Amino acid sequence: MKIDGTHYRSLWWNAERDVLEIIDQRWLPHDFRVIPVATMQDFADAIYEMRVRGAPLIGATAAYGMALAMREDPSDANMDAAWTFLEKTRPTAINLRWALDRCRAALRPLPQGERATAAHALAAEIADEDVEINRRIGAHGLEIIREIAAKKPAGEPVRLLTHCNAGWLATVDWGTATSPMYQAHEAGIPLHVWVDETRPRNQGALTAWELGSHGVPHTYITDNAGGHLMQHGLVDMVITGTDRTTRQGDVCNKIGTYLKALAARDNGVPFYVALPSPTIDWTVGDGVAEIPIEERNAREVTHIQGVTDEGGIGHVRVTPEGTEGGNPAFDVTPHRLVTGLITERGVCDASEEGLSGLFPEHAQAAE
After folding, report:
1. Taking residues 158-163, what's their average pLDDT?
2. Lower CB count within 10 Å: N or C terminus of the chain?
3. Residues 46 and 82 in one domain
4. Which residues does the annotation place in the binding site?
């Protein structure tokens, strides 16, 4: 996608500097900063501190982290140590472990002298794969938007609601939930996107920044406004991303997603989830019971980041002094509340049968 007319991915290898570079998302949408990720501690900090965020992007970043580890020491012991070091940074998003497992499985059989080159090539492959997966998700989601648009009066926009940022900043490019939006916009379909603020980190502001950069009409709303809009017929479709999806179609996404699904069900609004296949955890059945939910620092709740009157970026406390903050970062939406899953292979029911039909090779391996 583009920023001021220039194409960017969320991460890329700078061959001249021989280092991975990322967009440091902690400062968006107020300041656009690119930083190098040069050490193993840099990789861990980038993931944990949400310099990179979004399940697909976390996975791609971790793959480049494994590549760096193999450059420093290609031994089995260091490979395992790097896997453990990176895996513990974020417990909920499954792409992190998926990427680390894929790297270790591919590298383990190789002679140590070949591992560094192979690891770097694999990391680049994982990044490129993510771009294509998201493009294809967008193509399948576009057809759903076309169907909605065909039933509306001429010129009336399709009104979408999304939660958190499942845009290109959360992936290597295109995004998951935003990919159908971008492709519909490029196809000339009138859209209006309701963008949840998504407290406590206000990641909806990243979505608004993305959509604004591409000319997609949108409105930034409070997290609790979505149900009201649905009650008044102002939402045609909800579409979110996911950080981990169970084999039966339960969806773990940013905190607040479950409430949007409940409101959508009560108002007859279709609730879709954009689902890259690496985000499916075939080992988990019941998402509510089995998926670990990351509890983040309470300061993210008690303080808020913004631009000061002097033009700098700062934090202010919004709670009474001494008030504790609770900060579960994700919730689980049961599959019964999900209208459909939009994957790179097509759209399916949120069920074990639906996912197994699109991905039989993974379903069989999990049995």
Report:
1. 98
2. C
3. yes
4. 53-55, 90, 203, 253-254
Q: Which positions make up the binding site for substrate?
A: 53-55, 90, 203, 253-254
Catalytic residues: 243
* Residue 151 CB neighbours (<10 A): 9
- pTM here is 0.93
| Percentage of the chain exceeding pLDDT 70 | 99
CATH number at residue 194: 3.40.50.10470
CB atoms within 10 A of CB 21: 16
When computed from its CA atoms, the radius of gyration of the chain, rounded to whole angstroms, is 20
What CATH number does the domain containing 21 carry?
A: 1.20.120.420
CA distance 241 to 336: 17
Tell whether 203 and 266 lie within a shared domain. Answer: yes
202 contacts: CB under 8 Å, gap ≥ 6: 304, 305
Q: Looking at the predicted structure, is the pLDDT value of residue 234 above 90?
A: yes
Peptide bond into 200 cis (omega under 30): yes
Domain that holds residue 150: 138-366
| pLDDT given at position 363 | 67
Give the per-residue pLDDT at 319.
Answer: 96
